[in-house]
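Appendix B. One record, verbatim.
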Amino acid sequence: MSHPQISRRTAELGTENAFVVLAEVNSLIREGRDIISFCIGQPDFRTPEHVQQAAIDAIRGGMHGYTASAGIVELRTAAARYMGAMRGLSIDPEHVVIGAGAKPFIAYSILATTDHGAGDEVIYPNPGFPIYESQIRANGAVPVSLALRESRDFAFDPEELERCLTPRTRLLILNSPHNPTGGILDRRTLESVAAILRRHPQVWIYADEIYSRLCYGEPFASIASLPDMYERTIIADGASKTWAMTGWRIGFASNPVLAPQFVRWVTNTESCATHVSQWAALAAIDGPQDAAEAMRSSFLERRDLIVGLLNAVPGVSCRTPGGAFYAWPNVTEACRMIGAADSEVFRRRLLLEAGVAVLADIHFGARVAGDGQHIRFSYAASAQAIKDGVARMARFIESNRVAG
């Protein structure tokens, strides 16, 4: 049957390949295959009990209708206090907007700072969360990638950032702690970035800090905390990673100038975040933090476990990530050892032949020249799954060595 054409914008829209691979994994599991999966980026814990109870109370209390597009006043106030305390800022609740997760604010920030087809440029990290590039393109701006380098523990060279900036640059996306590498931007790096941006006053900053509570060793640092930066920085955070609330869909963003513009975008799209979830998020922020701290401690133990195990695998080397719950091992030599053309071939063979599901570097952007081949493990998995999965990978490499 013939049908009208779909738009080129939709046909060319990128996706989040974690969900594509997850569908592939689930299909194999339905076929009876034994798969250990490290491909999805979400905590493997239950939402804390007091947060669940707050949602039940909200349902029983009749919190079933629309809220203001900006979110309920109670949550905006709590989120302002929470984000401000972490960053040494005094944030006005009027400058906070609640969204259906933090992800919509990526698009809203691009929409609020660039004009479609005007040649406005957005700089984003590479490798990076794939939705950055897809939303830049879909909203008619020009994507400019900024390489994260293994030699810098997956931070970028501030001099490279300076070379990327032009009079057409409108937005710089920073993500720390970082998906997919687990790298962080420390205060010293951010001070260098701030010094550069003071010479480019036309550039907004999107600070994706959804993993802010998952820093290990180096304390969390936000560019919004530095002199002259808060007014031009969109702080994006949320409930998903800190309190294991990915499916509740609650994010919060703050900027004193753009907050009213974000409210209008929320009105134009989702109307408001889910009423019940907003009351649950309020309980998450204001309630006891022992569950969140226990999750963080568990992730830290798993990080140390998986990094140690990966570095013992033939042909694999893995930097110690500073935050989030991802490991980004270099598998260049492992690919050569088994005759895999690249990390994507390695990933697919690892899944089909060894039953271990990971993501490849190309799922997060073009490979960084000179940095080799990488795969991503999400270590939001049990210690036993980590041990078994890495052992399977080691056996897979050893049993598939090619001559030469």
